[in-house]
Write a structure and sequence with these properties.
The complex is a heterodimer of chains A (327) and B (281). With 327 residues, chain A is mainly alpha-helical. In chain A, 72% of the residues lie in helices and 1% in strands. The chains are: A mainly alpha (327), B alpha/beta (281).
């Protein structure tokens, strides 16, 4: 009996499949490159006209009406929007991260067994709620019923605070503000951070937790001294994902931040964020303004890129440090 | 009825129960359930001070579950519940005013797989000393760490590298580090859940020697699947088996509990004899 090991039939599907998945993989680069090049290209005349640095730091934004790539008439200082993005995203992460840690820890370690699955499903469902719904709920219900009274209370209680000229809770209170947008953002990014942190905590080695419990550690001590340190890189990654979402979030911020072109140190003031400003203005924009909005888009993209790289560096560095200890 | 074996199958270490040793744990009709499943049923036994009590039996017989009742580690398993009497030095271990944290500071535990923290050797041993009510000074802490490592027979091997990672030690050293960590808080009892099952024979022999020394200071309860080990190191042995009730539910039961020497030479129950002579399990 002779067994032949050469190919017995033609296989077309396999090479076709290989080509298809290769193309799909390559498309990632094509899309990324196409987007970066196209946006930067459109925005370039504005950066040339205004100067990149003064585009970032200027706080005057006056849209012009030129229809060509020259003869610009506007003034483009994007600082009020950059500031609004940074402040709202920071407020969001500062509120959301500790809460997410608590929720994740509760679900994993404290919740009764029959509650665990419903709770984690609900968290994941919340993470999938479209942001327009958060925005509407935030604007029509949360703002008048909860946020406005809360902001007024902040203003009347802490309005006097003055840190070297910075008055974080200075009035008047209009409702729509950096803080209102930041709080709604926090609620929005809470579920996504919680969902990831929960998974990170869930794969934390149980034997070390048990070792700590067996020495008489309380649940809080086990969380603080065993679970958190060894889950740190995952928690950083989760926060960066949340931060990225907060920085890029458009609709909900647009509805709650108040849409002004000025900026103010008080968290109770209205302002605008990069994404929200682009979304609000591009419909009626002149060709010149469109280019200016593209330029904001480039800056926004740079921000998200910096956050991503920062997260990777942080995770890499922590991994190296704790990896040394664990060898 | 078992008649006893002509020649002992396992060399006996020579330890014998002490007459009149005080009772540390008194178990009466203990059941452990996970959800609605009664996993261990009707266990009654006394564990005596400064003795080594071995719990042996085939897998699924509930020996580890019973061990985890003694320092309330079962509290951490969602849905686990313990009924029956578990008294520790006369007090109900599951009483309403008993704090499981305090219980675990008195009753330490060493696990199957060595589980040092990803920290230095020093920090591993000092771990349990750094929380809780008493804050120790640096020099007291140093003394306690040295004493713990000495009683775990590890001091001479690590005294020059206290700051290197606990994970850099060999498996046997890691397990002795875990023992040092457990005894550093000066517990009354040390529970060991198959402490040698992940170790090679030489490391196992060292831990067994160590157990003999530790028994001068502490009450030890060890779970082991290794019958020879139980015979070599313990004063008393409890033999558990997995049983099936009339509804077909598997559960663990205590078959026989007696002096180790008697369990291994003249077991009273046929099932014990079958197990120790290797006919099943």
């Amino acid at each position: 009996m002779s067994a032949t090991l050469s190919r017995q039939r033609k296989r077309i599907a396999d090479p076709a499949f290989r080509w298809f998945v290769t193309l799909a993989g390559a498309s990632v680069f094509v899309i990324l490159a196409g987007m970066v090049i196209r946006t930067t290209n459109d925005a370039w005349p504005i950066f040339q006209y205004q100067g990149f640095f003064s585009f970032l730091t200027g706080d005057q934004w006056l849209a012009g009406s030129s229809r060509t790539d020259s003869d610009f008439t506007g003034t483009y200082g994007a600082w009020p929007f950059i500031y609004g993005t940074l402040v709202t995203a920071l407020i969001a992460i500062v509120i959301a991260l500790p809460l997410a840690l608590c929720v994740a820890f509760y679900i994993n370690q404290l919740a009764p067994k029959r509650l665990r699955n419903p709770l984690s499903y609900s968290v994941e469902m919340l993470a999938a709620v479209p942001s327009i719904i958060f925005g509407m709920w935030g604007f029509f219900w949360l703002l008048p019923n909860v946020l406005r009274p809360f902001l007024e209370w902040l203003e009347s209680t802490f309005g006097w605070i003055n840190l070297a000229g910075w008055k974080p809770f200075e009035g008047p209170v209009f409702g729509s503000s950096y803080l209102a947008a930041g709080i709604v953002l926090a609620i929005m990014i809470l579920p996504i951070i919680t969902a990831i942190v929960r998974e990170v905590i869930a794969v934390n080695p149980v034997d070390q937790q048990h070792a700590a419990y067996a020495l008489g550690a309380t649940r809080f001590e086990v969380m603080r001294k065993v679970v958190l340190p060894s889950s740190f890189s995952g928690i950083v990654a989760a926060s960066m994902l949340g931060l990225g979402r907060a920085v890029g979030e458009t609709v909900a911020v647009m509805m709650l931040i108040g849409s002004t072109k000025s900026w103010d140190g008080s968290l109770l003031s209205a302002g605008d964020s990069m994404a929200a400003h682009i979304a609000a203005r591009f419909g009626e924009a002149t060709p010149e303004t469109t280019k200016a909005l593209m330029a904001i888009g480039v800056v926004l993209f740079l921000f998200t890129m910096i956050i991503n790289i920062g997260a990777r560096l942080l995770v890499w560095r922590i991994g190296r440090v704790s990896g040394d200890a664990a060898v | 009825m078992a008649t006893g074996l002509a020649t002992p199958l396992t060399p006996h270490g020579g330890r014998r129960p002490t007459e009149g040793a005080p009772v540390v744990f008194e178990l009466g009709g203990v059941n452990v359930s996970y959800g609605t499943h009664r996993a261990v049923r009707d266990v009654s036994m006394d564990i005596h001070e400064r003795e080594i009590t071995a719990l042996i039996g085939p897998s699924g017989c509930g020996k580890s579950t019973v061990l985890r009742c003694l320092n309330r580690m079962n509290d951490l398993v969602p849905g686990a519940s313990v009924s029956g009497k578990v008294a520790y030095r006369g007090a109900d271990l599951y009483g309403a005013d008993v704090d499981s944290i305090e219980v675990r500071r008195r009753i330490g535990m060493v696990f199957q797989k060595p589980n040092p923290f990803p920290k230095s050797i020093y920090d591993n041993v000092a771990y349990g000393l750094r929380f809780g009510p008493d804050r120790l000074s640096r020099s007291d802490l140093d003394d306690r760490v040295e004493a713990a490592l000495t009683s775990a027979a590890l001091w001479d091997e690590v005294k020059d590298k206290l700051n290197s990672s606990g994970h850099a030690l060999s498996g046997g050293q890691q397990q002795r580090l875990c023992i040092a960590r457990a005894v550093a808080v000066r517990p009354d009892v040390v529970l060991m859940d198959e402490p040698c099952s992940a170790l090679d024979p030489i490391a196992t022999a060292k831990i067994e020697d160590l157990m003999q020394k530790l028994a001068d200071e502490f009450t030890l309860v060890i779970v082991t699947h290794n019958m020879q080990q139980a015979a070599r190191v313990s004063d008393r042995t409890a033999f558990f088996t997995a049983d099936t009730d009339s509804e077909g539910v598997r559960h663990g039961r205590l078959v026989e509990y007696d002096a180790t020497e008697k369990i291994f030479n003249r077991p009273a129950d046929q099932r014990t004899e079958d197990y120790i002579s290797g006919r099943f399990g």
